[in-house]
């Protein structure tokens, strides 16, 4: 009877430790994803780029060129009378540890006003941490049409990116 109690106690401690670690990195994930969304809303491109995967920033030509591209894109949208009325993230839909990374998929909800018309989109962010969930990088999967491995080869093949959805009113 004593061995069963010790074994059960050991298993309980292991599962508790895993649960606590998962809670810490999920808390960091949610906090940082919301900070990223806040940076988008404020047009704080410097902060936004700290959450943007370095391979994306490099593909854009580095921080300065990426900032210029983001500013120009937002200006072009403004000139077309496109206004973001809502940007939010949902709860993690997929989460896995793969090699030395933690990877996840997070839904993102965006509403825009285009003159008299409105659009609602649900797309997905790929999140990846290289340091146990302390820091996260995010990548909008919509422009990649679901194939993030071309840009981020370490993305797990087990990550499945749902199809984006857009409705117009």
Automatic annotation (TrEMBL):
The keyword Signal is assigned to this record: yes
Domain of life: Bacteria
Keywords of this entry: Signal
Protein name, per record: Nuclear transport factor 2 family protein
Organism: Pedobacter roseus
Signal peptide: 1-22
């Amino acid at each position: 009877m004593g061995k069963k109690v010790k074994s059960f106690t050991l298993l309980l401690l292991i599962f508790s430790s895993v649960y606590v670690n998962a809670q810490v990195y999920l808390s960091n994930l949610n906090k940082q994803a919301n900070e990223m969304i806040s940076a988008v809303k404020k047009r704080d491109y410097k902060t936004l780029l700290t959450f943007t995967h370095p391979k994306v920033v490099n593909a854009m030509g580095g921080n300065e060129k990426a900032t210029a591209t983001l500013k120009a894109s937002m200006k072009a949208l403004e000139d077309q009378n496109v206004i973001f009325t809502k940007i939010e993230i949902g709860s993690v839909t997929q989460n896995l540890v793969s090699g030395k990374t933690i990877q996840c998929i997070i839904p993102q909800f965006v509403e825009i006003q285009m003159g008299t018309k409105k659009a609602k989109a649900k797309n997905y962010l790929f999140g990846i941490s290289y340091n146990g969930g302390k820091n996260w990088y995010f990548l909008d999967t919509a422009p990649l049409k679901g194939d993030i491995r071309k840009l981020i080869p370490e993305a797990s093949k087990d990550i499945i990116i749902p199809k984006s959805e857009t409705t117009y009113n």
